[in-house]
Amino acid sequence: MSNQLSGAPGNLSPIRIERAEKRDKSLLPWPPRPVYHSGGTDAPRRPAAGAVTWNITTACNYRCSYCTQQFLEDRKRLLKDATAFIAAFSRLPGRWEIKMSGGEPFTHPALCEIAEGLRRQNHLVSVVTNFSASRERLKAFLDASGSSLRVFSASFHAEYAGRNNQEFTAFVEKCRWMAGHLDAEASFNVTCVATRDNLAQLTDYAETFARAGVTFKVQPEKRDREVIEYTDEEQELLLSLGGHNMTGVIAPDFSGQPCWAGALYFTLDDRGHAWRCYPARRFRRQYLGNFLSPDFRLARGPTPCLYSYCNCTVPIERGMTPGTCAREMEHTSNWKRPARWGVTTK
Ligand code: SF4
Ligand code: SF4
After folding, report:
1. Higher-scoring residue by pLDDT: 346, 323
2. Is residue 29 pLDDT above 60, yes or no?
3. Domain span at residue 38?
4. The CATH number of the domain where 177 resides is what?
5. Ligand 2 atom having least distance to the Cα of 303
6. pTM for the whole thing?
7. DSSP designation for 30
8. Residue 19 — very low, low, confident or very high, per pLDDT cuts 50/70/90?
């Protein structure tokens, strides 16, 4: 596929796009014109379904030392009008996977009602949780999501759920219980942030979860929103455990390459603000409008990535970014490139 449109900014580097954008605001209007080839790469095929990562609350019952949200001004916000959001989701074209996170989504009293509302609209439901909710509440969520549930992701936070063997054993047992209650179409996984305190235990954790039949994924720690500077040995360890969420890399850089985010993926907050992806939200660019209002606009196709670090594994795993990233971001690129370099998409 090589359908680059004449006049579209497909062959420009992100820096040149930025300069051009400053020079001529009309060059990158929102929604932008689709670009199917840029940065020497074709866009992947159009994914069958869209995906949203939705932070439904900033509230959380934990206070992890490495939490990327610890500097938010308000960590008690809950989305207020669930009905308005459900109505907005009904306006999305086709079937979408709505991945709810927070904060901690199970602190939201309307979580089950939201899941049920999305199911009734034939959307798919996924969730990321610290897994501290009671089994009764977890079961109520499973009942509300029904066969629409796709991914149940439990974050293992050793500072709260692994302070001793008893806590860790209880967490693993709860994982087994959850995996045993899922529909065949749904998947369950455990994620763990690779903090310096955790690094020595990661291999043991991975082996324990493997014995329990549970998929275990590591996530690089971020400080000031950038991946911390792991040593070469630490990077080798993370790669041996699959890289960030098993994408095969730690901090991929797709800049300049075409990505479907903005057209078939976006990130949404509890107030309705929608951005192309997390880096877009961070840099306050490529704003899609407020999801609840008529000014919300999806892009019409793939467009070049403008960011040098993609931490959005949802669009990566769903085949919305090119199959191979251009490179690892600068400060994770100093070690020997592994033979299986690249991001596997499915
Ligand atoms: S559980 Fe997640 S949201 Fe809550 S403090 Fe820990 S990292 Fe932050
Ligand atoms: S940062 Fe990732 S999700 Fe965002 S546009 Fe770039 S490749 Fe796509």
Report:
1. 323
2. yes
3. 28-340
4. 3.20.20.70
5. 5
6. 0.87
7. S
8. low
